[in-house]
Amino acid sequence: MSSRVNNNPFERRQVMKVNQEKSRPLPPWMSRMRAQWVEETVSETVKADNCLFGVIIGPGGSTIKELQVKYNIRVLVPRKGSKDEPITVQGKDKTLVKNAVLRIKALIAEEKERRRVTTPVSQTLCIPKALHGKVIGLQGQNIRPITQALKIKIQFPNKNDNSDEVTLTGLPD
């Protein structure tokens, strides 16, 4: 077995430069700025389900950018797939951070309500198989006005099925 030796001086120099750049200390002015930011920063967290992070980010990041500019803060949203990590809001002004947190909570509440109202729910009723025909009526004349007025779907079991379960599906309101 022979070990491969890199005889090209240019490649060796490039590797050394990359290693040197990684280990170079920060300039003093940058360290001071960083320390000042850490000292003066107010930080608050907001708990939200991972599926709601998109509401805070917005299409193309527009909502999060708007929040950051309007309130002069930073919003740190956990990466996709991270579990139980809160959204962090950081800024120098405590009132602006609080206002941003309130706005984020409002966005989350609005989205939860929108999903609650627009997500269909199902309910199963037991109606004896012998009465299914009477409930439906001739060519659906009994059931059609109900489904149209309430904007629901009613699913009866197949004729060959002996089940008595009838499923009603519609919006919660």
TrEMBL record:
Residue ranges, annotated region (Disordered): 1-26
Domain K Homology: 40-109, 119-173
SMART domains found in the cross-reference section: KH
Positions with biased composition (Basic and acidic residues): 10-24
Keywords for this protein: Repeat, RNA-binding
GO annotation terms (biological process): regulation of gene expression
Record-linked SUPFAM superfamilies: Eukaryotic type KH-domain (KH-domain type I)
A GO MF term: RNA binding
Protein name: Vigilin-like 30
Species annotation: Homarus americanus (American lobster)
Lineage, highest ranks first: Eukaryota, Metazoa, Ecdysozoa, Arthropoda, Crustacea
Gene: vgl-L68
